[in-house]
Amino acid sequence: MSLFEVKERMDALVKELNQHNYNYYVLAQPTISDYDFDQKLKELEELEKQYPEYQDADSPTQKIGGEITKEFQTVRHKWPMLSLGNTYNEQDLRDFDTRIRKAIGDNFEYVCELKFDGLSMSLTYRDGKLYRAVTRGDGTKGDDVTSNVKTINKIPKKLTGSGYPDEFEIRGEIFMHRAAFERLNQARIDNDEVPYANPRNFAAGTIKLQDSAEVARRPLDCFLYFLYADKNPFKTHWDSIHAVKSWGFHICEHTRLCKNLDEVFDFIHYWDEHREKLSYDIDGIVLKVNSYAQQAELGFTAKSPRWAIAYKYKAEEAETILESVSYQVGRTGAVTPVANLKPVLLAGTTVKRATLHNANEIERLDLYEKDTVTVEKGGEIIPKITGVNTLKRVAGAKKIIYPDTCPECGSNLIRKEGEAAYYCPNDEGCPPQIVGKIQHFISRKAMNIDGLGDETIETFYRNGYIEHISDLYTLYEKQDELRSLNRFGDKSIKNMLDGIEKSKQMPFDKVLFGLGIRYVGETVAKKITAYFKNIDSLMNASFEELTSVDEIGDRIAESLLEYFKDQRHIDQINQLRQAGLQFEVSETETVLVSDKLSGKTFLISGVFERYSRDELTALIEANGGKMLSGISAKLNYLVAGDNMGPSKLEKARKLNIPMISDDDLLSMINQN
Ligand code: IVH
After folding, report:
1. Residue 169 and residue 132: Cα distance in Å, rounded?
2. Which of 312, 335, 359 lies at the terminal end of a domain, its last residue?
3. What residue's CA is closest to ligand 1, atom 17?
4. Domain containing 289: what range?
5. By alpha-carbon position, which residue is closest to atom 12 of ligand 1?
């Protein structure tokens, strides 16, 4: 390389790695594997060593990583949150061990821990109570996410046991178990929300939410792995983590004390083989010198401690041939590219397909037909393509080009500003969208129609019996014809018709969710119906009215307005109404338990330790109280939890509105 090329390469690496850091830490949406990232970082480090004169002040080698997001208060860490040196090979561990022996002799132990794949968090406790929770951010300053962290059950708000310092900081990893991830991600897909790629991103995305109530709905866990205190009462890391367990913290049961490197390698090999059996993702193991005195002797480099190192497992990958790319059209019209691969064995299963996410991804990978590609199975459930071996490209191969028309119906695809996916706009005429919408309508979370399944819907559609949701309610007129479709006996037809009949009693929010309006998921449907009470006021609502509802943002409001602008949708709603479906909130939905709060108005703000906001709302309404959507002179009580927004607080104070706690509310209800 000429000097000019060296400088160009270094600049390009700085730019690319900074972008990847931003994708990883801020967007929680990495587009590169950890392994490739680390390789590129190492290449840059090498070049900087050789050509220090070209080192850029903005180089990622000079920063710990991460960046700070805007919406939260920034807090400076008392002890910087360093990263760990890491490696993918065992020789580096031997070198690490040799360095340590040279510095402190042979009399020491290691603590071996799993390297949890989540996001690190620093928790401060004062007088036995959780005082503050801060993300790592850039290592010196992070985001104050206390209100969100308070909703995590696995993190104690009040300590148990004794012997803890008056003030201390404890660090650990917040993560989501795979089972919860799969369940919630499926719900996101069902609700038309962008799914997360893996549990790590889901956890990171959750902690950055502005709405703590939503955080509370997503189960997170946290393993603690480091204690900091001005006067640490313990002499070793091992003793600290066992003490913190008695104070109520969750620590990982697999942590081991190892006398030498052989025991460390046993630990590494064991978990490389068995990590699939854990209920959460790990991406390696962490090795720490046990004694605090020895840790102090070893000290730190600018970025990481000299007494600890991470050994990372390589995500399993394999090379195979890209046969073709298919484009799947979902219920909402989103067109998703899927790579069809020559079958290859990867992490114990045969892989035939890999996700390509969207058009940008195809562009980024620069794919050609018959390309030799690397597939990787990391934390993701569906494998992904991480690279292309261009040296093996077949001469004259055709470039993969994302289509500009719908592969199912031929309509021109559209892309909304700020979104990665292309959509087929022909929602009423494109077969997979029609079938997908009806399947969504009958699904368990929407109308929960017994006796009907996805395949039946497809068969009915293909045979011309249904084309709209409302056609379900005319099926009883076609009973005889249905019987001729030889799959259906009298009994199954009766079950199906009974199920359809019963669905007419489903509450308004289920009907609204069932219509499949983009961005109107289950929770949003509940909020909207509770506010507007019936379909007519909803259809007549302006953008301002829609966005004044708690949790309804611009995107949802626009989607609703667009939906109701379409005459075909209005016709559908009218037909469903005529069929007898519920398009208003029924009076009996909130069963009155008492009228203790009747004539009084309430607003809930902040987070509460024992109740969700939905629970408190239900309690108020069940006792005759009325919820208001904002602070005004009409408001009688503000039920205030922790971490209320400062502007709300100020407004309530100005208007002299009494602020009560959840306990006060309960005593109002329980008094005789
Ligand atoms: S100790 C100064 N222990 O890995 C040492 N970190 O690459 C601080 N991590 O930022 C970290 N499991 O987010 C430690 N058992 C473990 C860990 C762990 C996961 C993460 C943590 C840290 C990153 C360092």
Report:
1. 9
2. 312
3. 115
4. 74-312
5. 115
